[in-house]
TrEMBL record, chain A:
Residues 393-406 have a biased composition (Basic and acidic residues). The chain crosses the membrane at residues 12-29, 49-71, 91-116, 123-144, 201-221, 248-269, 289-313, 325-348, 354-372. GO terms for molecular function: branched-chain amino acid transmembrane transporter activity. PANTHER family: ABC TRANSPORTER ATP-BINDING PROTEIN, HIGH-AFFINITY BRANCHED-CHAIN AMINO ACID TRANSPORT SYSTEM PERMEASE. This is Branched-chain amino acid ABC transporter permease. Its main location: membrane. Keywords: Cell membrane, Membrane, Transmembrane, Transmembrane helix. It comes from the Bacteria.
UniProtKB/TrEMBL annotation, chain B:
It comes from Antarcticimicrobium sediminis. The keyword Cell membrane applies. One of its GO terms (molecular function) is transmembrane transporter activity. This is Branched-chain amino acid ABC transporter permease. GO terms for biological process: amino acid transport. The chain crosses the membrane at residues 15-35, 42-61, 102-123, 190-216, 237-258, 270-298, 310-328. Belongs to the binding-protein-dependent transport system permease family. LivHM subfamily. Keywords: Amino-acid transport, Cell membrane, Membrane, Transmembrane, Transmembrane helix, Transport. It comes from the Bacteria. It is a multi-pass membrane protein. GO terms for cellular component: plasma membrane. It is found in: Cell membrane.
Length: 406, 343
C-alpha cells in the first residue's frame, strides 16, 4: 500500500489505529475510580504526545540515520511557533496557513544553520548547533522584544491580542485557532457507563498530520536517500574516498528534520496560540534527544514511543503526591507504609526529573537500542529463540550500522 | 585605559571559573577520551560542599537565658553553635566566618571520592561506546545529581558568604598609579582569580614535573604503548578523573560567595564550559585555560553599555558567536591537536 512493503504497511496501520483510537486506549480506567489519575486521554496531553512525537520523528531522521547529534533542534520548534502565532496575529486564526508558514520558516532557518554547522562533525557539530540555538534563545528572550521592533514579546511570550489586525478574520469564525471554522478546542464527549471519552478536534488534526509525516518518514527510511544517510553514519570517510560529496545529503536530512521540528512548533501554537522563548532553550533540545534515545534512535516507531513515554510519565508522576502514595500502600502495616512512602517520595511529584534521569541512564547503559530493543528482546524471549547478538569488539572492522529499523 | 583594564578585571572571575571547569573537562577527555556532561554537576556539588560545611559549623544547641525574656514573655532561647562552645567564642566565630575557605579541605576528599565512584561505577563501561552514548549517560547522571541536590537543599539559592576580612572592595587602580576610585575591585573576585591561577599552575606543574604526571602525559599521547610497558595506566587515569573532579569541585566551592549556589548552576556553566573546551581545542589543556579566560573577558567587554548600545544583545550571544567563528575558521579550536574527536 502506498509504495510500502507489507511490514511497513502494518506498522503504519498500527500507528494509525493507535492514534485514531487513542482517546479510548489512553482512558482505560473509569472516570471516578481511584485509577483515573493514570488516564492520559484528555486532549491537552494527547496533543502533546502527538506533537512531541512529530518532533522526535524529525530529530530521528537526522540523528538516527546520519548519526549527527544536534543539540539545537528546539530552535526550529521555537521559530515554528513564533511564525504560526504571527500568522494568527496578522491574518487569520485558520491553522493551515500558520502551520505551512511555520514549516517554511523552519526550513529556511535550518538551511542556514545546517549549512554552517555541517561543515564540522562529531562534537564540534553538536556544539555549533547548540551555540546557534542558544543564540536564538537569547535573542528571542531579550533583544527581539524591544518596543521598536517587537518580534517575540520576550518573557511574556508572543500571543494574540484583541487589537491585532487579523485581516482575514470574520466574526462568524471562532476566536481561537480553527480549521475552516472548526475550532481546535471543540471537544465531543462520549459517556459510556462509567467511562468518559473526549474527542478533540485539535487532537485529530495532529493525529492526521502525524500519520502523514510518519508515512513520509517510512518512505525516507526506505529510500536510496535514506540508505545514503545510513552510509554516512557507518563510515563517512569511506563515502568521501569513493568520490561522493556527503554534504548535500546531510544538509537535506538536517533541513527535513528542521521542518519536522517547525511543524511541531506550528502545531503547538495551533493548539494553544502562544509562543515563548523557553521553547528554544537547550534543555528543550535535550528533551528531544532523550525522547529519541529512550524510544530507540534509528528506528521508525521508537521516537514516537519515547515521546509518549516521557510525556506520559512527566504528567502522571508529577501528579502523584504523598496522599496518593499513602492510599497505595495502605494495605501495609503503618510503619512499613510510612517507610515505603518515604522511599518513593523523592521520585514523584516534583522529583520526577530524578526518575527521568535514572531511567535514562538505565536505558543508555542496558538498552542502547531503547524501548524498541527492549520490546524486541522480550519478543525473542517469548518466542524462545536464543540469538546471540553479533559481537562488536574488533576495532579494525567497520562498525556495524547500529540498530536500523527492521 | 582604566575602563579597558576594569573590563578585563571584570571578566577574570567568570573566566577563572570557565577555565577551571574546562581544564577538568579537558583532563578527563584527554586521558580517558570521555565527554563528561556531568562535569557541571561536579562544579555544583563543590559549591554545595561549601553549603554543607557552613551548615555543619552552624549546628547549634539551644539554652534558655532566664535573665532575658522574648516578646511572649518566655525565657529567651539562645542558639550557640557547638563550635563556639568547644573552642571558645572568638575562635568559634572565626571558624564559622571562614567556612568557605575551610570547605576546600572538606571538598577535596569528597570530590575525589565522587570522581572515583563515578569513573569506576559508570564511566568505565563507556570507554568503548560512541561519544554520543557517553554524552547521553553523563547527561542523565547530571540530571540525577542535580535532582538529588535539589531534594536535600531545596530549589532556592543558598548564601555562602566570604569571610568578613575578604569582604568589600580594594582600590586596585591606586596601587598601580591610577586616580583614586577609578579601578575598584571586589576582594573576593581577586581571591578567586589567584586561587584558580594557583590551581591551574598546580595541575600543570603536577603533569610536567612529577613522574606520575609524566606517565599520565605519555598515556594521553599513546595509551596502548604505555600499557604495554607494564604500567597500569587505567589506575592513573582513574586518579586523574578524581583530580579533575576535585578541580571542578574547588571551582564551585570558591564560586559560592560570588553567586549563591543553586541546584542548576552546574547546567548553566556546563554548556558554556563545553563551548570553552571546544573553542580551546578538544584535548588541549593550555587551550582550555586560554579560551576560558578569553571568553570570560570577552563576555565582560560585551556587557559594557557601549557594546550593548552598538549591537543590542551582544552580551548574551558573544560567547556563542565567537565559538561559531572560531570553529569555522580553525576547525580544531585554538590549540586543538590533529585527529582528536574528528570521527
Amino acid at each position: 500500500m502506498l509504495g510500502l512493503n507489507k511490514k511497513d504497511t502494518t506498522l503504519l496501520l498500527v500507528v494509525a489505529v493507535l492514534t485514531l483510537f487513542a482517546p479510548f486506549i489512553l482512558n482505560p480506567f473509569p472516570t471516578d475510580s481511584a485509577m483515573a489519575q493514570f488516564n492520559a486521554g484528555y486532549p491537552d496531553l494527547m496533543q502533546r504526545f502527538i506533537i512531541f512525537g512529530i518532533f522526535a520523528i524529525g530529530f530521528n531522521i537526522l540523528f538516527g540515520l546520519t548519526g549527527y547529534l544536534s543539540f539545537g533542534h528546539a530552535a526550529f520548534l521555537g521559530v515554528g511557533s513564533y511564525s504560526a502565532v504571527w500568522i494568527f496575529k496578522l491574518f487569520t486564526y485558520n491553522v493551515i496557513p500558520a502551520i505551512t508558514l511555520s514549516v517554511v520558516i523552519a526550513a529556511i532557518f535550518s538551511l542556514i544553520i545546517g549549512f554552517v554547522s555541517l561543515r564540522r562533525s562529531g562534537i564540534y557539530f553538536s556544539i555549533l548547533t547548540l551555540a546557534f540555538a542558544q543564540m536564538s534563545f537569547a535573542l528571542a528572550y531579550s533583544v527581539l522584544s524591544n518596543p521598536k521592533f517587537n518580534l517575540t514579546n520576550g518573557e511574556t511570550g508572543l500571543q494574540v491580542y484583541a487589537d491585532d489586525p487579523q485581516w482575514f478574520h470574520r466574526d462568524s469564525l471562532p476566536d481561537l485557532p480553527h480549521l475552516f471554522g472548526l475550532s481546535m478546542n471543540s471537544t465531543y464527549t462520549l459517556d459510556v457507563g462509567a467511562w468518559r471519552f473526549d474527542f478533540n478536534a485539535g487532537y485529530y488534526l495532529c493525529a492526521v498530520i502525524l500519520m502523514i509525516v510518519f508515512f513520509l518518514a517510512i518512505r525516507i527510511f526506505r529510500s536510496p536517500f535514506g540508505m545514503m544517510l545510513r552510509a554516512v553514519k557507518s563510515n563517512q570517510q569511506r563515502m568521501n574516498y569513493t568520490g561522493l560529496n556527503t554534504r548535500p545529503y546531510t544538509l537535506a536530512a538536517f533541513v527535513i528534520s528542521g521542518m519536522y521540528a517547525g511543524l511541531a512548533g506550528g502545531l503547538m501554537a495551533a493548539m494553544d496560540p502562544l509562543a515563548g522563548a523557553e521553547r528554544m532553550q537547550w534543555t528543550a533540545s535535550g528533551e528531544v534527544v532523550l525522547m529519541a534515545i529512550l524510544g530507540g534512535a534509528g528506528t521508525l516507531i521508537g521516537p514516537v514511543l519515547g515521546a509518549g513515554f516521557i510525556k506520559y510519565f512527566e504528567n502522571i508522576f508529577s501528579k502523584i503526591n504523598d496522599t496518593v502514595l499513602h492510599s497505595w500502600f495502605s494495605f501495609l502495616p503503618d510503619g512499613i507504609e510510612d517507610f515505603m512512602v518515604f522511599i518513593v517520595h523523592p521520585f514523584i511529584g516534583k522529583g520526577w526529573h530524578l526518575t527521568l534521569g535514572l531511567l535514562f541512564m538505565l536505558v543508555v547503559v542496558f538498552l542502547p537500542g531503547g524501548l524498541v530493543e527492549g520490546g524486541q528482546r522480550i519478543a525473542r524471549l517469548l518466542k524462545g529463540k536464543k540469538k546471540t547478538p553479533p559481537s562488536d569488539g574488533e576495532d579494525h572492522h567497520p562498525k556495524k550500522p547500529p540498530h536500523v529499523a527492521e | 585605559m582604566d575602563a579597558f583594564l576594569l573590563q578585563i578585571l571584570n571578566g577574570l572571575d567568570k573566566g577563572s571559573a570557565y577555565a577551571l571547569i574546562a581544564l577538568g573537562l579537558t583532563l578527563i577527555f584527554g586521558t580517558l577520551g570521555v565527554v563528561n556532561f556531568a562535569h557541571g554537576a561536579l562544579f555544583m556539588i563543590g559549591a554545595f560542599c561549601a553549603v554543607t560545611v557552613q551548615r555543619i559549623l552552624n549546628l547549634s544547641f539551644e539554652t534558655l537565658d532566664l535573665t532575658q525574656k522574648d516578646f511572649l514573655g518566655n525565657p529567651l532561647k539562645i542558639k550557640t553553635p557547638y563550635i563556639e562552645s568547644w573552642f571558645g567564642q572568638d575562635i568559634g566565630a572565626a571558624i564559622i566566618d571562614w567556612s568557605v575557605p575551610l570547605a576546600i579541605l572538606f571538598a577535596i576528599p569528597i570530590m575525589v571520592l565522587i570522581g572515583f565512584v563515578m569513573e569506576r561505577g559508570l564511566i568505565k563501561h563507556f570507554y568503548k561506546r560512541e561519544h554520543a552514548d557517553q554524552i547521553l549517560v553523563t547527561f542523565g547522571l547530571a540530571i540525577v545529581l542535580q535532582e538529588v541536590v535539589k531534594y536535600f537543599f531545596g530549589a532556592n539559592p543558598i548564601q555562602t558568604p566570604e569571610p568578613s576580612a575578604l569582604r568589600g572592595s580594594v582600590d586596585l587602580g591606586m596601587m598601580i598609579g591610577f586616580q583614586v576610585n577609578e579601578i575598584v575591585y571586589p576582594i573576593w573576585r581577586l581571591v578567586y582569580f589567584f586561587f584558580s591561577v594557583t590551581i591551574i599552575a598546580g595541575i600543570f606543574a603536577f603533569l610536567q614535573f612529577t613522574t606520575f604526571g609524566m606517565v599520565v602525559r605519555a598515556g594521553m599521547a599513546d595509551r596502548e604503548t604505555v600499557g604495554l610497558l607494564g604500567i597500569n595506566i587505567d589506575r592513573r587515569f582513574t586518579i586523574m578523573f578524581g583530580v579533575a573532579s576535585a578541580v571542578a569541585g574547588l571551582a564551585g566551592v570558591m564560586y559560592g560567595p560570588l553567586n549563591p549556589p543553586n541546584y542548576h548552576m552546574g547546567m548553566d556553566f556546563l554548556v558554556l564550559s563545553f563551548v570553552v573546551v571546544v573553542v580551546g581545542g578538544m584535548g588541549s589543556l593550555p587551550g582550555a585555560v586560554l579560551a576560558g579566560f578569553m571568553l570570560g573577558i570577552l563576555e565582560s567587554f560585551a556587557s559594557t553599555t557601549w557594546a550593548t548600545t552598538t549591537i543590542p544583545g551582544i552580551n548574551q550571544i558573544i560567547i556563542y558567536l565567537v565559538a561559531i567563528i572560531i570553529l569555522l575558521t580553525r576547525p580544531r579550536g585554538l590549540m586543538g591537536r590533529k585527529g582528536v574527536m574528528e570521527d
